């Protein structure tokens, strides 16, 4: 164990935690905005109740997304100062844009929404939740553009040992980013849809209220559409991986030697002939490079080192991502079919909907493991090794301290969030408005 | 271009300290100025709609440092590793505490988080910047004491400006007490800098004390805000020549292309940010009372 290992663990732990909360913020924000719009359009009280109910759950989760996100922005400088110095010229711009264009909008308008229920005109108040929700989605675009650049650096040159940006537009329209953004945002909507499905399923088991049927149906539609986007962009991502990150693809498939007409191994030992070549290049006879041959070529190109990522982790995270993601989307398509044309939700389906919360979360976390571990040993593919990215002046003890603090703190807060969400889900919607001043002292959305 | 970006980063840090400065103060003082749960809610509601937007000034300042001066960003945050870790811990427990306190059965843990999470970063930012300037522990402690005291004063004046009833009265007394600490500490901390803004900052603190004594809360808040602006200005004037020991701005800076692009982005986006954030303060311009009616009229047709 040295500072590098611990810094990597810290990045893994903090990023995975951050991404437990972020997808829900991205998708649920839009969902709540949609509910409030429905209330605005129809005037039906059930939509207002749902807006406030899911709004409260959204806020509980939003807090965690924000505070774990602050750590991310400081972490590059703290643990990865060599990386930061090398890439800041390129990588910093999307981060600065994220703050200026997305975070300000998200935080400011959410504050207005939380406290503006009575103070703002109804239309302005509705606009606030949309602005906040759109801000969340915008932030995802900028951070994913930065992340995509690490896998497939474009629009830069290296001057005096530092990356220098030459084309901002190329960085923001990186092919890798354009595939990754809809893929990840789509996945976020699947997670948020799954969350609404689980909550609605719980309530459909207790009561047959039409309100919960509407919520569940809306979430089924959202999850199914988002699932289609994720699958489509997943295919695009796989083809880009074939072109841009051959080593990741080879590791994800356990393919050791260059092969034409490569088979796809479902699990080790069970293979579908030629499918890998088909997925990689839309050609069943395409040549796919193998890890060992790539290693040889990389050694010639970059010098002696091990250029192979952690093969079992990459292999299995890829499969877990697909299986768990597909299961969620399959469940939503099944649900849509079973409840078509005003058919009731059968109770076994409501029970199955409870699975729609954990399944996509496992899928998105696996997706990030595939993405980040598959990029190893590079922080910037072909330019900077992870081992050369770490802060030279930071001691093992310092990283160990911060890693311990963050892990314990995050763990405690994640449990607290789970308890808090569960409690408010069980409470259900506010059936009546507070009538007296004393009752109003416990505001539903405020402090 | 390099100079311009240094000025922009100084501006972003200034915005951060002015805005988050008072909400740190409110977070620290909420238990002191309130006598019951309702008054505590009243105190915290003064910052409720705005604290998160204020915090984005920090995210933007740090993001801009990363983009415009990568080596400076990397150097500062890897050098001040443990203090920054503790700042982050503070911001985490504070953020969660503020968002959750209205949603938990017993807000005690949240309230503790808000106090600790406001005081810790308020102290540590001063310590980090003082250490950047003087590279000595006593200076860092003095710098931390200074920012802690000034945030408390700034927050107390804001509370006096934004509340009614007993909380407003107690906030005024607290502000006077805080100024009794802040002014001597400021004299000790700022006389070392000796620049014009540093001296003007001391004068501004003294003016704030006189104004809050005479119950001119709005002007007193302008004076404490002025003191924060002038102090940050004084600090960044010192940092200009040596942002980090052994580093110059030119060495730390990104290339001209990146700085030009960032300038356009900043020029286009910052005015919007200032307008809608300003609008938030306008929407919530009224003083916060206790037991304000909230909620909506059930079944009322949307307007």
From TrEMBL, chain A:
Which range is the signal sequence, renumbered to this chain?
Answer: none
Q: What is its main location?
A: membrane
> Does the record's keyword annotation contain Transport?
yes
Q: Does the keyword Electron transport apply?
A: yes
Top-rank taxon: Bacteria
- Looking at the UniProt entry, the stretches that span the membrane are 15-33, 53-71, 91-115, 127-150, 184-205, 217-234, 316-339, 351-370, 399-422
User: Which family does this protein fall into?
Assistant: Belongs to the cytochrome ubiquinol oxidase subunit 1 family.
**Record's protein name:** Cytochrome ubiquinol oxidase subunit I
* Source organism of this protein record: Nonomuraea helvata
UniProtKB/TrEMBL annotation, chain B:
Official protein name in the record: Cytochrome d ubiquinol oxidase subunit II
State the membrane topology: Multi-pass membrane protein
Q: Which InterPro entries match?
A: Cyt-d_oxidase_su2
Q: Which domain of life is it from?
A: Bacteria
Q: Which residues cross the membrane?
A: 6-33, 80-100, 112-134, 140-161, 173-190, 196-213, 220-241, 261-284
* Keywords attached to this entry: Cell membrane, Electron transport, Heme, Iron, Membrane, Metal-binding, Transmembrane, Transmembrane helix, Transport
Q: Where in the cell is it found?
A: Cell membrane
Similarity comment? Belongs to the cytochrome ubiquinol oxidase subunit 2 family.
- Keyword Membrane (UniProt): yes
* Pfam families to which the protein is assigned, alphabetical: Cyt_bd_oxida_II
């Amino acid at each position: 164990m040295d500072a590098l290992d611990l810094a990597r663990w810290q990045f893994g732990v903090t990023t995975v935690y951050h991404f437990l909360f972020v997808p829900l913020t991205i998708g649920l924000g839009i969902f709540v905005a949609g509910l409030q719009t429905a209330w605005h359009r129809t005037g039906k009280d059930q939509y207002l109740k749902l807006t406030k109910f899911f709004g409260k759950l959204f806020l509980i989760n939003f807090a965690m997304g924000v505070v774990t996100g602050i750590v991310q922005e400081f972490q590059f400088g703290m643990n990865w100062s060599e990386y930061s110095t090398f890439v800041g010229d390129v990588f910093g711009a999307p981060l600065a844009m994220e703050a200026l264009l997305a975070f300000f909008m998200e935080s400011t308008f959410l504050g207005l929404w939380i406290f503006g229920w009575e103070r703002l005109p109804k239309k302005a108040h509705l606009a606030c939740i949309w602005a906040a929700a759109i801000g969340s989605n915008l932030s995802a675009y900028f951070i994913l553009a930065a992340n995509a650049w690490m896998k497939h650096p474009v629009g830069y040159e290296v001057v005096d040992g530092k990356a220098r940006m030459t084309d901002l537009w190329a960085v923001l329209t990186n092919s890798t980013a354009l595939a990754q953004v809809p893929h990840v945002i789509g996945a976020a909507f699947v997670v948020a849809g799954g969350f609404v499905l689980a909550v609605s399923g719980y309530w459909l088991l207790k009561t047959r209220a039409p309100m919960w049927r509407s919520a569940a149906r809306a979430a089924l539609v959202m999850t199914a559409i988002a699932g289609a986007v994720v699958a489509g962009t997943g295919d695009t991502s796989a083809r880009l991986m074939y072109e841009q990150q051959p080593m990741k693809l080879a590791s994800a498939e356990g393919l050791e030697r260059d092969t034409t007409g490569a088979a796809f191994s479902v699990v080790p030992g069970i293979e579908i002939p030629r499918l890998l070549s088909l997925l990689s290049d839309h050609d069943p006879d395409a040549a796919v490079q193998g890890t060992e041959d790539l290693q040889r070529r990389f050694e010639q190109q970059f010098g002696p080192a091990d250029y192979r990522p952690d093969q079992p982790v990459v292999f299995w995270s890829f499969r877990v991502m697909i299986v768990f993601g597909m299961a969620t989307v399959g469940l939503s398509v099944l649900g849509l079919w079973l409840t078509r044309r005003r058919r009731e939700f059968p109770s076994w389906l409501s029970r199955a909907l409870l699975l729609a919360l954990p399944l996509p979360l496992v899928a998105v976390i696996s997706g990030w493991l595939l993405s980040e571990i598959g990029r190893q040993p590079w922080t910037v593919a072909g330019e900077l090794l992870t081992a050369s990215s770490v802060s030279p002046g930071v001691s093992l003890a310092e990283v160990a301290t911060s890693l311990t603090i963050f892990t314990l703190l995050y763990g405690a807060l994640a449990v607290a969030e789970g308890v808090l969400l569960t409690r408010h889900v069980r409470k259900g919607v506010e059936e009546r408005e507070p009538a007296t001043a004393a009752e109003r002292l416990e505001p539903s959305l405020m402090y | 271009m390099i100079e311009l970006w240094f000025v922009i980063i100084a501006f972003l840090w200034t915005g951060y300290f002015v805005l988050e400065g008072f909400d740190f103060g409110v977070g620290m003082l909420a238990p002191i100025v309130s006598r019951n749960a309702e008054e505590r809610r009243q105190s915290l509601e003064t910052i409720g709609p705005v604290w998160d937007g204020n915090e984005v000034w920090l995210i933007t300042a740090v993001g801009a440092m990363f983009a415009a001066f990568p080596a400076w960003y990397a150097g500062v945050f890897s050098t001040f590793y443990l203090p920054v870790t503790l700042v982050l811990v503070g911001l985490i427990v504070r953020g969660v505490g503020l968002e959750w306190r209205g949603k938990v059965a017993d807000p005690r843990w949240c309230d503790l988080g808000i106090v600790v999470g406001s005081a810790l970063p308020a102290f540590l930012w001063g310590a980090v910047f003082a250490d950047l300037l003087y590279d000595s522990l006593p200076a860092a402690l003095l710098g931390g004491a200074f920012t802690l005291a000034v945030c408390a004063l700034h927050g107390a004046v804001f509370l006096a400006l934004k509340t009614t009833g007993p909380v407003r009265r107690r906030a005024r007394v607290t502000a006077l007490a805080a100024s009794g600490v802040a002014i001597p500490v400021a004299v000790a901390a700022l006389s070392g800098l000796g620049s014009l803004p540093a001296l003007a900052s001391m004068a501004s603190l003294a003016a704030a004390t006189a104004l809050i004594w005479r119950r001119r809360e709005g002007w007193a808040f302008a004076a404490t805000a002025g003191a924060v602006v002038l102090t940050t200005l004084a600090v960044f004037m010192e940092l200009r020549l040596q942002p980090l020991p052994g580093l110059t701005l030119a060495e730390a800076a990104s290339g001209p292309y990146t700085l030009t692009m960032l300038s356009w982005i900043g020029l286009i986006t910052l005015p919007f940010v200032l307008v809608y954030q300003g609008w938030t303060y306008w929407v919530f311009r009224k003083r916060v009372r206790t037991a304000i009616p909230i909620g909506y009229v059930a079944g009322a047709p949307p307007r």
